[in-house]
């Protein structure tokens, strides 16, 4: 998810939040700062990163029931760096990507609110860290005070199926729930096996404007019904307005997430 403008509430015992724009980039162009691999190493060494916890809200009751942990970075000047270019750059250095992800996941889990926390990790990084029984990510997730839910992109579930299956199997053996993310993204690929096995289905934010089309809406409603029948849960991302919230409730989605709930976000960092 994208970040956008608001001042989040810091966690108790956490340092004062670093000024930044929550859900930044919506409705205005931001010129990204240039970042290098050496710059990423410096960010990690200097602790110039923090975690933003975005709220997941129960669609019927309006209560915050979980959070998604998202990594945020800042450069030497103190200005926030868009996360996407940082992670894109890290793909060229798998060892540094692994170090980054381990560092981030430790913070995201240790500083999480006392509620289920969703985290993101790719199967390539997971497999580089270890196997299904001896893996530092597994140790971090299963020892957390808060319940951890691991998100897997639907695109990766379809294009990197073998490694995704290995990671998911290891998580399930240790009773760590898995969420299928980015379902319905415009460039996504539908994996029926991944949909059938996911404990949580997260619909991509780009679905909202496409719900005006009857077939798209009917498909999402059918997936929500399937989730209810099988005991899975559904989440709609990108809920920015009250109208979006009403659409989510009409669809039968269990949880919603997005800019509308920006005042419930929290941060933790150094």
Report on this structure.
The chain is 39% helix and 20% strand. The chain is of the alpha/beta class and 270 residues long. The chain has one domain (9-269): EAL domain (TIM Barrel), CATH 3.20.20.450. The chain has an 8-stranded mixed beta barrel. α4 (123-129) packs across α7. The longest helix is centred in the middle third of the chain and has 17 residues, at 94-110. It is globular and about 50 Å long. The two termini are 22 Å apart. The relative contact order is 0.16.
Q: Which class do the helix and strand fractions yield?
A: alpha/beta
Mean pLDDT across residues: 87
Helix content: 25-40%
In the CATH scheme, the class would be Alpha Beta
Q: Report the count of strand segments.
A: 11
**What would CATH call the homologous superfamily?**
EAL domain
Number of domains: 1
Gyration radius, rounded: 18 Å
CATH-defined fold name:
TIM Barrel
**How do the strands of the widest beta sheet line up side by side?**
2-3-5-6-7-8-9-10
Q: Biggest β-sheet, characterized?
A: 8 strands, mixed, barrel
Proportion of β residues? 15-25%
What is the ordering of alpha helices and beta strands? EHEEEHHEHHEHHEHEHHEHEE
What distance separates the N and C termini? Answer: 22 Å
What is the 3D shape?
globular
């Amino acid at each position: 998810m994208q970040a956008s403008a608001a001042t989040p509430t810091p966690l108790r015992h956490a340092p004062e939040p670093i000024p930044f724009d929550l859900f930044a980039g919506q409705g205005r162009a931001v010129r990204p700062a240039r970042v290098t691999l050496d710059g990423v190493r410096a960010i990690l060494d200097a602790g110039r990163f923090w975690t933003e916890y975005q709220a997941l809200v129960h669609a019927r009751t309006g209560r915050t029931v979980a959070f998604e942990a998202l990594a945020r970075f800042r450069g030497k000047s103190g200005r926030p760096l868009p996360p996407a270019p940082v992670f894109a750059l890290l793909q060229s250095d798998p060892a540094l990507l692994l170090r980054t992800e381990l560092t981030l996941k430790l913070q995201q889990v240790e500083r999480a609110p006392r509620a289920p926390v969703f985290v993101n990790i790719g199967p390539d990084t997971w497999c580089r860290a270890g196997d299904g029984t001896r893996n530092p990510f597994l140790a971090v997730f299963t020892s957390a005070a808060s319940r951890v839910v691991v998100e897997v992109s639907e695109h990766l579930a379809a294009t990197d199926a073998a490694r995704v299956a290995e990671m998911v199997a290891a998580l399930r053996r240790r009773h760590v729930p898995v969420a299928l993310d980015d379902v319905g993204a415009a460039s996504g690929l539908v994996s029926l096996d991944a949909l059938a096995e996911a404990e949580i289905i997260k619909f991509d934010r780009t679905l909202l404007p496409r719900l005006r089309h009857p077939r798209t809406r009917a498909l999402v409603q059918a997936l929500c019904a399937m989730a209810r029948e099988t005991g899975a849960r559904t989440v709609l991302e990108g809920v920015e307005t009250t109208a979006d919230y009403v659409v989510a409730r009409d669809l039968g989605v269990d949880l919603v997430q997005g800019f509308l709930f920006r005042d419930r976000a929290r941060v933790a960092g150094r």
